[in-house]
Amino acid sequence: MLRFVRIRVxxxxxxxxxxxxxxxxxxxxxxxxxxxxxxWRQVFSKHYGAAGDYSIYxxxxxxxxxxxxxxxxxxxxxxxxxxxxxxAVHWNGHAWSSTFLLPATSYVIAASADSATDxxxxxxxxxxxxxxxxxxxxxAKHLTGAGELTGVTALSPTNVWVFGGSGYTAGLGxxxxxxxxxxQWKSGNAVGLQRASALSGTSIWAVGGTxxxxxxxxxxxxxxxxxxxxxxxxxxxxxxxxALSSTNVWAAAIANGGSGPxxxxxxxxxxxxxxxVPWSGLQVNSPTPDGLGxxxxxxxxxxxxxYFIHRGAGGTxxxxxxxxxxxxLARIPGTNALWGVGxxxxxxxxxxxxxxxxxx
Length: 360
What we know:
CATH superfamily: YVTN repeat-like/Quinoprotein amine dehydrogenase
Distance between the termini: 30 Å
Radius of gyration: 18 Å
Helix content: under 10%
Largest sheet: 4 strands, antiparallel
Shape: globular
Number of domains: 1
CATH class: Mainly Beta
CATH architecture: 7 Propeller
CATH topology: Methylamine Dehydrogenase, Chain H
């Protein structure tokens, strides 16, 4: 599965260096036909550390037109993962500013925001849950013990879900914050959740799996997490999920344990349908509305070429070369513009990159 900050290949989460070099371990690539990238452009890039180190932005949130956070990490140890630092870049509508998120010692793997003054992020390793309160970043919770965090979903300052499903290491579990205390959900379908998309406090869609990572879609009804079953979902491994309404839920998936064709699955409020991505060897992630009834996704071929993928409202597919590896997208509220984050690949290192689509 492709994701960084939760990038997986055949179900395993990869570190920064592996994200930038693991494409050759997959087989069967078929490059989409479109080479141009209309509308997408690189707007910011930065390399952290020495020439042999790795840098990447893998999480992005855009709570308003004048506020966006791009978060990720720097491996300042020549790519061996021994010295990693979490980092964040902020766009205020006019200029960029960046900071390291101390004391976090691992890269940010996911972020979520319900407003410009309530932004949450989690680190892959180290157990750090970070919070931007409108003026500074704080450590909201430090989960101890070995294991990974994989997702965060913030509905309000008093309703935050954090997920730590297993993959590269054991997961740190599913946690809920009510504004005062953190509670771990230790049983049932809440175990093994990776990441989620919320419509409300009583309707949250998630991917995960109690038997194997990313093997199921789950739904929270305000009281409990319930497994979702449908023929269209059978045999798939789910990369990501995006709930737009109660009758419009999308998930990106891949078949055959991560080695088969890529799919979108769609829930219309009554049933699930499976839609195959029309290129072999292309994995997709981060389904994001285009504002016109269609979806943008990130994509990567099995030989490491990154793409911006578009599926129009009428079902027409297009793929546009990114000149880098885009990993996560966020639509700017009230517009058809988007931010994209990822890495610019190089022979020995990678620079963190931010792309923009439309007027930002």
